[in-house]
Design brief:
Belongs to the TRAFAC class TrmE-Era-EngA-EngB-Septin-like GTPase superfamily. EngB GTPase family. This is Probable GTP-binding protein EngB. Keywords: Cell cycle, Cell division, GTP-binding, Magnesium, Metal-binding, Nucleotide-binding, Septation. Helix content is about 30%, strand content about 20%. The chain is built from five helices and seven strands, in the order E-E-H-E-E-H-E-H-E-H-E-H. It is globular, with a radius of gyration of 16 Å. The chain starts with 5 loop residues before the first strand and ends with a helix. With about 200 residues, the chain is an alpha/beta fold. A seven-stranded mixed β-sheet has the order 1-3-4-2-5-6-7, with helices on both faces. It has one domain: Rossmann fold. Helix 4 links the parallel strand 6 and strand 7. It binds guanosine-5'-triphosphate (GTP) and magnesium ion.
Amino acid sequence: MIIKSVEFIISAVKPEQYPDVSMPEIALVGRSNVGKSSLINKMLNRRNVARVSSKPGKTQTINFFLINQQFHLVDLPGYGYAKVSKSQKEQWGKMIERYLSKRGPLRAVIQLVDIRHAPSKEDVQMYQWLSHFHVPTAVIATKADKISKGQWQKHVKIIKQTLGMEKHAQVQVFSSETGVGKDEAWQMFEQFLFG
Ligand code: GTP
Ligand code: MG
């Protein structure tokens, strides 16, 4: 994918604020701090178009980015962030669920997991929720630079088993640090967006 333009469109908290267009879109979900915003930056060759932080809970709204005047990438808040109140968590949960369940142009959800760890209970819940509602989903295992290449397949296997993925389903290994998996991730995105 050649990135000709990247525009930040809006930071939304409710559906009335979502861009009112029929362009296809892909959203990123995953635990807080897993690297959703970093992946967006890496994919777009931008340093900080999506705001990144070493502290979890950085992204708190639904951020729409328009790419090449052609499609949207959507950065969602992470789940599983312990340091917010129960009511705040519920509010975020509702905001994310409303987006995922009602967004017409949404072509696919990319679920990010940390390659180093078995998916959490919440990761499993998210994966099952997406599958239950028949949302096309792909899993990317990120932070691959944090373990040696020889360990990747072993960790991918644990991720597939824990999420209960089908045997033939793919997990794409990725690193926002080194760019490994970027071309493959674009191929995957393009397939979802333009078929
Ligand atoms: P929330 O907005 O809180 O949901 O987090 P997020 O999923 O958007 O994570 P973010 O992209 O802000 O990254 C969190 C931290 O992980 C930052 O310190 C990033 O630099 C780091 N990080 C993200 N991806 C990678 C990666 O592939 N490799 C390494 N080594 N660090 C990464
Ligand atoms: Mg973020």
